[in-house]
């Protein structure tokens, strides 16, 4: 595998990054759109969430099969431990967030769209469960801002302060 992740891993990483941006923007900027556009904005958000879920599970399975390329020079054990913890949090967050969202949408008990298709929904809404899930979804999404910022800051610290190859391992290959 060399000193970089595979092209597939790099592609998934950056595609998830873009999908997360679109999913967050859809929710943060929906107030700037007319109410009549809300179903489309919500569909974009949900579709991105489903794509993120699928890609994160795929990325996790690929990661379990193929070890990460070595960091050169090797960081201190504490830094390595914090990196593993950070990646665990990222995987858990971006798998849990879409799962919670999907269960929430299903339990609303009315039609909803993903990728332009009507998705299954419960015969009757469970609004108490929906409210609880929505609260968790919003809390975790807000935590996501912090986790993403920490992840980016750590990558920049590796590159500029510790001067190792951590960031370069995930950069697309030059043609």
TrEMBL record:
It is found in: Cell membrane. GO terms for cellular component: plasma membrane. GO terms for biological process: respiratory electron transport chain. The chain crosses the membrane at residues 12-33, 39-62, 82-106, 143-162. It comes from the Bacteria. InterPro entries: Cyt_b561_bac/Ni-Hgenase (IPR011577), Cytochrome_b561_oxidase (IPR052168), Di-haem_cyt_TM (IPR016174). The keyword Electron transport applies. Keywords: Cell membrane, Electron transport, Heme, Iron, Membrane, Metal-binding, Transmembrane, Transmembrane helix, Transport. This is Cytochrome b561. It comes from Citrobacter telavivensis.
């Amino acid at each position: 595998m060399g000193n970089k992740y595979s092209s597939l891993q790099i592609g998934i990483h950056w595609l998830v990054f873009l999908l997360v941006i679109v999913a967050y923007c859809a929710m943060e900027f929906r107030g700037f759109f007319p109410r009549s556009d809300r179903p489309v904005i919500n569909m974009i958000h949900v579709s991105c969430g489903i794509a993120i879920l699928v890609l994160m599970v795929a990325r996790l399975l690929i990661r379990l099969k193929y070890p990460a390329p070595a960091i050169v020079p090797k960081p201190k054990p504490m830094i390595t431990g914090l990196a593993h913890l950070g990646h665990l949090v990222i995987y858990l967050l971006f798998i849990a967030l879409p799962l919670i969202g999907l269960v929430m949408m299903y339990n609303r008990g009315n039609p909803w769209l993903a990728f332009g298709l009507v998705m299954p929904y419960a015969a009757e809404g469970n609004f108490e469960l929906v409210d609880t899930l929505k609260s968790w979804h919003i809390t975790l999404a807000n935590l996501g801002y912090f986790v993403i910022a920490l992840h980016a800051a750590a990558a920049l610290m590796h590159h500029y302060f510790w001067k190792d190859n951590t960031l370069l391992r995930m950069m697309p290959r030059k043609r």
